[in-house]
Amino acid sequence: MGASFATHMLLLLWFFTATFCLSFFKAEPHVSCNEKEKQALLTLKRGLTDPGNLLSSWSPDQEDCCRWERVRCDNKTGRVTELHLSSPFDVDGPWLYYKKRLGGLRYLILTHLDLSYANFYGLIPHQLGNISGLCYLDLGGYNSHHLYADNLRWISQLSSIQYLGLSSVDLHKEVDWLQIMRPIPNCLKNISAMATSDDEGHELEYEKNLKYVKIIDLSSNNLSGSIPDEISVLLELRFLNLSQNHLTGKIPEKIGNMKELESVDLSHNHLSGEIPPSMSNLTFINYLDLSYNNLSGKIPSSTQLQSFDALSYTGNPQLCGDPLPKKCTVEEKPLNENTNRQNGRPF
């Protein structure tokens, strides 16, 4: 009898322990998306052409839109926060592309919107600036400049943006480079100290709601003109890609102030002049491509700049010094300020 009592007690103890553990480790109930956001997504789908049926789960019959493909929601509130609508990289496969305006987006409070690599064409809608909570926006892709922008002032409304992808977007109608770069400092830590007399009003305008920008990809954007000196105030920038454009002029002298830079690609442009000595200050840089420009003079001596192979500098016939096989002659070495003054040459 004693053994039987002990057995019953053990079973009872096991039952209460198991019940307690199940209660303790019970997952929090799943929060479904609200009906308004579900209808907004269905409105968005009606503006898409989906030959591969990639959005088959986006259906009125599927009650919880948080479980739909390419949709991410906040686990606590059930609000839709992310849309991943990029097309597959397999060009032979089914693509998702757009047949009219992206209706429904204005009803969503998104932080992440990926529309990259889609057959999206026409003018970028300025209404994207109304999604002010966006931290990530990617409109880039290999669409042969079918997508274009007449101006990018709407970017100034994206006060939380951390990633902005505009690769292959045609920006040639954006004639003022400063219109592109001035909105971006809206995401900076501090810009007021870099204001100039001509631009102070613009700088102060974007000093509000300053955040951080870490990545800029404006490659293959059909951009012309020079790289604005204001880019050097992007002190938190880590990745800068301005390749495959028609940029002229010099690399900004103060680019070395951007000490967080890890990757710089300015290749396939028409940049001229010498490589700024300040680039030697980029101690975190692990990728550099200045190839196929019109750069000249000696590559500044530094552990960082000489750590890259010659491919990073190739296509600049007037460039010399390590790691290029072409060695610098006296004539090709940059003249210092005293020599310029003695010879009466401008500097």
TrEMBL record:
Q: Which residues form the Leucine-rich repeat-containing N-terminal plant-type domain?
A: 35-74
Q: Which keywords does the record carry?
A: Glycoprotein, Leucine-rich repeat, Membrane, Receptor, Repeat, Signal, Transmembrane, Transmembrane helix
Do the record's keywords include Protein transport? no
One Pfam family name from the record?
LRR_1
Q: Name one GO cellular component term.
A: membrane
Protein topology in the membrane: Single-pass type I membrane protein
Protein's cellular compartments: Membrane
Under the heading InterPro entries, the entry gives: Leu-rich_rpt (IPR001611), LRR_dom_sf (IPR032675), LRR_N_plant-typ (IPR013210), RLP23-like (IPR046956)
Secretion signal: which residues?
1-21
Per the record, the similarity remark reads: Belongs to the RLP family.
Protein name per its UniProtKB record: Leucine-rich repeat-containing N-terminal plant-type domain-containing protein
Q: Source taxonomy lineage?
A: Eukaryota, Viridiplantae, Streptophyta, Embryophyta, Tracheophyta
